[in-house]
Design goal:
two-stranded antiparallel sheet; five-stranded mixed beta sheet; single chain; 2 domains; flat; 9% strand; alpha+beta; 12 helices; 483 residues; Heat Shock Protein 90
Length: 483
Amino acid sequence: MKISSKLMLIVLLTVFEITLTLWSVFEISNGVKFHELNLNHFKYSSQLMNKVSSLDANSNVKVDNLRAVVLNIRQQPIDCMDTINVVNKFIMEAIDTDSAIALCIQDIKDADHALSLIDDFENGSLDKEIFISKLKASAVTFNQTSILFEEPVSKTLSFIMKFMIPLVVIISFFNIIFISFMSNTITRSIRHAIQQLNHKKKKISLSDDISKNVSGELKVLLQAAQKRITSEMLMVEVNKKLETLDEQRTESLTRANQELSQFAYRTSHDLKAPLSATKILTRFIIEDINAGQLENAVQDTQHVHDQMEKLEELVMGILSLTEADSTENINSSINLDMVLDDIQQRLSGMMNLSDYTMERHINLDHALVNNQTRITQILENLISNALKYKDNSKPDVPFVRITISELVESYQLDIEDNGIGIPVDRHDEVFGMFKRFHPQISFGSGLGLAIVKKHVDYLKGTISMETSDQGTKFSINIPKVIV
């Protein structure tokens, strides 16, 4: 086989491996999207149940509000059907989870039925008491659909992760072995040619020796450079570099797959907890209402609201982490005072200006030119953390000090506080995902510092941390952008 053919096989196998990896990531992303759509479906179904449960014979029915909620419920299975592709259908049919598709289709029909009930009531062709009863039944059906939808989607995502990730790893190892084999055959061919040249007979010229003992592309190569016997050393070095490169690539791919698997697991786990709690609380609310214990129902409703806030914060954290990858790298001149004013206004609900100081020291000779979205996200997450984890036991007034300085080739951003700090034994976890160091003080998503690190990496900067019981200081160095 020609050397070019061997190299082409290596390229084709590598392309196949990369394609399979990207497809696996895409399918896992689809699975996460299905969970998100089901989460929205459950949220809107709960809203509908709450609205219908609050209706009685004497209450005023806000038809437009009910219709809007039902339309939101109907949109989720529509988006789900748009997301499902041919491969998804094939996999679902193979592992017997295609019931999710049937659920989506039925859910759209149920939503259309609920909309027709609203239309009939609005037109006066449906009694109010019957309308409330039937709409409540529809709300229960929607909730049940959300519960039934979760299992086949989870099973499908689990199958993809358990099957595709090991397959990618196996193909990666096979690729390494194949490349090593091809490299060795190429090296052996060259070594054989060199041995022939080193032991040539005196009566035979070098060109005759090459023509007699070497063929194919190697013959052309040796004829073009007859005296360059060092080709063996060159090919050995290339071989070692290829092996090293593939080992590094395989290690990086394995690590990325492990991180992706851990991210999917932690995300599913953290999303499931508030959903399960909300489901139980919703049942308690119904029981309290039926028993006439409205005070208990109000308390349970507040608990549901708290769980939804936790869920919302987690989802927003995941979206922010995803947006960190997709944010466009558009550079512009940044008005830092205006950025900090906006951040302070957004975070004003977390701090009382009368007993909290937010210092800023901007020492710039020229305007900071960079990606404003990423710079804002970095500052807002670090300032927000300082506000969440202030130390009320200290006699000093709690503060956040922001210092921005211009260096020769970079900008230095220092965010310092006198809060409770980060435990010494967990410093190596600071920029990891889903890391919460003081859950008893603030629930948080555990993604804030991971988002900061990702933005800093995209800006080709560095970030370091100093922390103790006296407070915490984050120092960020960002290279200047050449415009």
